[in-house]
């Protein structure tokens, strides 16, 4: 690898850290950028010699290698960041990736549970052991506040404001937001803290809100696994295989929209940086209305 490319990758890593990008994001951008740098090396291209035409050839190669459109789009987004960094640091005059169009991605609607399915799932958790008390609090909160799995596991005991019925959440990019939480979730958390957390905690436990049976902070894989366990027991949930923490988050947003919440408020509750990300829920609602129309109108 040439020195200019080595410097470019180093500048990208520095900028991503400065912007507070998550570790997974930094890793993905580094892998994607390194893949392109190796391709550029084989074609004798330095950063200043990369043109939109060269990038289109690279993207075409990814497509020919049967990379999924979402994967190609992500890799091109990484390259836009790489070259934007070089422009910002005065290494290039313009970003050759700005003129590159991403492949069209299939519009896949998020998996959403019906309110009755969510109720059946949550009510199926008995809350009669330390682990079930924890799980009831965990998933009541996930649905009540629309939290990501990554946000649930980073909560500390002090993150919960019982008086205000609020939770302080550390979201993507280390951005903190305050999210309201309903009475059932607050009651479930209170029961867990009173009756179960002490039984799970060890001398080595930190201030994590949700603890594993060994007393450590839960991982996101723990959250997904435990939700699958309870989903299998809730027979009224029609798509057990699709039930995930993100499905609860999608359901939270969709149910708010169905009951009159405005899109801007939902954006703030979810912690979306852009309203365009939140607009997917209007497509979910639109699809539901079209289905109802097709089934009900005599001349549909």
Largest sheet: 3 strands, antiparallel
Number of helices: 14
Question: Percent of residues in helical segments?
Answer: 55-70%
Oligomer: single chain
The succession of helices and strands, N to C, reads HHHHHHHEEEHHHHHHH
The chain-level mean pLDDT equals 83
What proportion strand?
under 5%
So what's the overall shape?
Answer: elongated
Number of domains as seen in the coordinates: 2
Query: In CATH's first tier, which class of the largest domain applies?
Result: Mainly Alpha
In CATH terms, what is the architecture of the largest domain?
A: Orthogonal Bundle
Number of strands: 3
CATH topology of the largest domain: hpI Integrase, Chain A
Q: CATH homologous superfamily of the largest domain - what is it?
A: Intergrase catalytic core
- Strands of the widest sheet, in order across it, are 1-2-3
Radius of gyration: 23 Å
Instruction: Note poorly predicted spans.
Output: none
Features:
3 strands, 14 helices, three-stranded antiparallel β-sheet, 2 domains, 58% helix, DNA polymerase, domain 1, mainly alpha, 300 residues
3D structure, described in words:
The protein is mainly α and 300 residues long. The chain folds into two domains: 97 residues, DNA polymerase, domain 1, CATH 1.10.150.130; 181 residues, Orthogonal Bundle (hpI Integrase, Chain A), CATH 1.10.443.10. Helix content is 58%, strand content 4%. The mean pLDDT is 83. One of its GO terms (molecular function) is tyrosine-based site-specific recombinase activity.
């Amino acid at each position: 690898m040439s020195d200019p490319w080595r410097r470019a990758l180093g500048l990208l890593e520095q900028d991503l850290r400065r912007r507070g990008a998550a570790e997974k994001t930094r890793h993905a951008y580094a892998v994607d950028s390194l893949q392109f740098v190796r391709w550029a090396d084989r074609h004798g291209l330095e950063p200043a010699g990369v043109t939109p035409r060269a990038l289109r050839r690279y993207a075409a190669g990814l497509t020919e290698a049967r990379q999924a459109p979402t994967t190609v789009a992500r890799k091109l987004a990484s390259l836009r960041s790489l070259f934007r960094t070089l422009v910002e640091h005065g290494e290039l005059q313009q970003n050759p990736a700005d003129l590159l169009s991403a492949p069209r991605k299939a519009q896949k609607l998020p998996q959403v549970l019906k309110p009755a399915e969510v109720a059946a799932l949550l009510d199926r958790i008995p809350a009669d052991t330390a682990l079930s008390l924890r799980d009831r609090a965990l998933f009541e909160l996930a649905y009540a506040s629309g939290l990501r799995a990554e946000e649930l596991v980073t909560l500390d005991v002090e993150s919960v404001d019982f008086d205000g019925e609020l939770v302080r959440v550390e979201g993507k990019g280390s951005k903190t937001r305050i999210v309201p939480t309903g009475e059932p979730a607050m009651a479930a958390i209170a029961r867990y803290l009173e009756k179960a957390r002490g039984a799970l905690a060890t001398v080595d436990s930190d201030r994590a809100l949700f603890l594993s049976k060994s007393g450590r902070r839960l991982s996101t894989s723990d959250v997904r696994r435990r939700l699958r366990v309870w989903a299998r027991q809730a027979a009224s949930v029609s798509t057990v295989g699709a039930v995930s923490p993100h499905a609860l988050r999608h359901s939270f947003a969709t149910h708010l929209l169905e009951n009159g919440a405005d899109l801007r408020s939902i954006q703030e509750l979810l912690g979306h940086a852009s309203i365009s990300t939140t607009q997917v829920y209007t497509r979910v609602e639109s699809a539901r209305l079209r289905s109802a129309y097709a089934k009900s109108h005599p001349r549909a």
